[in-house]
Amino acid sequence: MIELDAGDAHMTVYPDEGGRIGALQVGDQPLLHDDPAGGPLIWGCYPMAPWAGRVRDGRFTFDGLRYQLPLNMPPHAIHGTGFVSRWEVLDAGQDFCDLQTTLPWPFGGTATQHLQLDPHGLACILTVYATGVPMPAVVGWHPCFLKPQRADLEFARMYVRDADSIAVPGLVAPKPHPWDDCFVEPLAPLRLHYPGLTVTIASDCDHWVVYDEPDHLTCVEPQSGPPDAFTIGGAARLEPGDMLQRHMALSWSAQRRQW
Prior knowledge:
The chain has about 260 residues and is mostly beta strands. The protein has one helix spanning about 230; strands at about 1-5, 10-15, 20-25, 30, 45-50, 55, 60, 65-70, 75-80, 90, 95-100, 110-120, 120-130, 135, 140-145, 150, 155-160, 165-170, 180-185, 190-195, 195-205, 205-210, 215-225, 235-240, 245-255. The chain has one domain (about 1-255): Beta-galactosidase, Chain A, domain 5 (Distorted Sandwich). It contains one helix and 25 strands.
């Protein structure tokens, strides 16, 4: 475990548990669900690579060949391999760390993370590299936030989700909560409000999955493409030597509004 500190912000990182942030606390306010008892899908904040979200039945076609992924959420494959891999610590200091892992899937490749904590926020950089052969890729993050008092999450459109709970082509107006859905085009900054603290989530990703069905947590997940992007479109194609890189920033400030 790596411990990072900056001002009154404290964070733990678990290289052997998917390179995930296990806990993130600002002052007395914890921000993440940090109990691993429910399994690796639903605690902390973890990187999603080399794909994010579900791959229907774990199957897809790339360059004319069919591939079958392990079904880690039967009957589908979900969230890549990075979140259950061991990550090597390349460097670490009081307020940062750099991690790397190989990608154990048919195309190989590597992934790296840079995590930088400061008194007012957290910056995350996730990069996937193709090495020996061309490969598809989608990256993102899965932060499992403790349920906020209020969430400002407004989007222009969302993907249609079918009976298998997987996104299909076609965008519609957002439906009412609760959500386990993929959205595009945020209409305002994405914010979660806690007692005395407001957290803003920002990213250069253009897709956002929001999972707020549980009573105890809300997941706001920036992704570089939609779920099942290997089939419905939206994945990057990487030639050997290419990379896919995205950024996520969490920032926090004292809460001034009253409800």
